[in-house]
Amino acid sequence: MAMIDNEEDIAQWLSFIDNGPWLRGRQLVVVDQRGVGRAEPSLDCSAHYTPSVWSEVVSKVDEVVEFDLAQKRDVTACRDALLMKGIDLTAYNTIENAADIHDLRIALGIEKWVLYGISYGTKLALQVLEDHPEDVIAVVLDSTLPPDVGYVDQGSNNLDSALRTLEKDCSKHSGCSKNFPNLMTMIGGIVRQLNAQPVLLRLGEVEGSARFIRVSGDDFLELLFDGFYQRGAIEVLPQLIKDTNEQDYSMLVEILGDDLSGDDKSDFADGMHLSIVCNDSVPPSAPSAKFPLFDHWAADNIYTWACPLWPSAKPVKTHKSLKANQVPVLLLSGEYDPATPSKWAKYVAGNTGSSQLVVFRGIGHDVVDTTPCGGEVVSDFLNNPKAPITTPCLAAMDGPHFLAPEEDASPALEASAVSPLPRKHLVSGP
User: How far is residue 128's CA from residue 133's CA, in Å, rounded to a whole number?
Assistant: First the structure.
């Protein structure tokens, strides 16, 4: 979702165009989906959002807050306020969004266009391709979310895969393997210890008031999951794991303090997010993680309790096969992506005709915004959508450059990502 609310948002999109050579000379249509930004009716719920409840921060050491109950109150208040306005929350789903994109093309008088989607936007683009292939001349999918995959319950599998990629790369890196051996063993110890006895950490003050946060083993896994979104954060994860295992929480405090330095107004900003997730009925998949500790963490996601509270429509139609598709499709995937893993992109590519997949070494979620090579690949594709991708920069992509203990990790901490496909805390959308 574009979330175009003000001039600052517009400026950010203009910057996105300026920093993307592949967009120069092309017209870009940025769409606010129904319920978001300036679209009417708005499914904004910021008035019912309590920042401290969702960040789970307290102001006193002995303060006790039932965060789960408070979060449910926020979601219930959001739901009730939207229903009081007469909004049909069951009318918000990916199929309806795809129909809106089709109607917009007609309204703008555009004969055909290229679809470009990131994360949830890829699911929407695939839905448009399925329902309105006549609208589309080419498709670019960055960090692909398949329409028929139950992503809500796949967190444990995806985190397991990302951590094993990290462990494999660390073992091949002389400095990392020497300084940070047995990462998975250390993670297991951290999770067991912190789940048995969460640690209370003091964060930096805000306007003179102290802030404290309790971190459990599941919270630590959540932080690792978020860290895999950005390459800079991936490169310091081994150090974070080692320090936390040794009960040195200074890096953990710094990361949490940076993440909570300002409560993003987009957090819990739209009931549209819950409407789409809860209305896009996808059968659950069986967990297959090799590390059972992840299953408890994965089960603690917002959708397990929020969707039963949220109005939802009857299951939508099954998806049509795209194997006979003739529209050129490019899929970009980061090998470390914990939210929309490469195996999902491979699955879509294998079931979508005229498609080609490029997996980027050492990259997490949102390839184009992470590495200039992503934009170069897209540019080559758009210049000749039917030609195989042979972009030279791909050969230069390498794995993470893990930091040694004596190196300053502070700059990379800023890359700790807010999840665009949230599990536990409701953020701005997938």
Answer: 7
